[in-house]
User: Fold this.
Amino acid sequence: MRRPNILLTGTPGVGKTTLGKELAARVEATYVNVGDLAKEGELYEGFDEEYECPILDEDRVIDELEDKMNEGGVIVDYHGCDFFPERWFHIVFVLRTENSFLYDRLESRGYKGKKLQDNIQCEIFQTIYEEAMSSYKEEIVHQLPSNTPEDLERNLDQIIQWIEQWMKDNN
Assistant:
């Protein structure tokens, strides 16, 4: 039975991981957090001193995920989306969070200074949404609010309904 691949993307701190893990558990999908995958496989090509974080080796990440993505039923969680092959995803959800919530979430993670401000600006200017819209067909890119536990439940319900319909239509 064919199962859809889903991309959850958005600025760090919008709730991709919380949504992705819960969604994968409810629909028995494979959950992949690209940051964790990169850490486990050391899929880096350097270190960014300004942002104090490793630089992802995007080609190695794609090589690592290719077979899994071809099987289907994968939920990918990452704050960037423009380097993944377009053919991988049946739908893309961009999570959006109001700045007051996002600021508190990022600050609690230890973000400060330029890194904190740049991520807040990224959300204000819809950077990830625009990246998704230019990387994938418009009709598969959807924005979801991600501010409260109620938003999380609504998003889960909406995505599960979409998965169920996709499976009816494609099997």
Q: What stands out?
A: The first strand starts at residue 6 and ends at 9. The helical segments are 16-27, 34-41, 58-71, 99-108, 113-124, 127-135, 149-170.
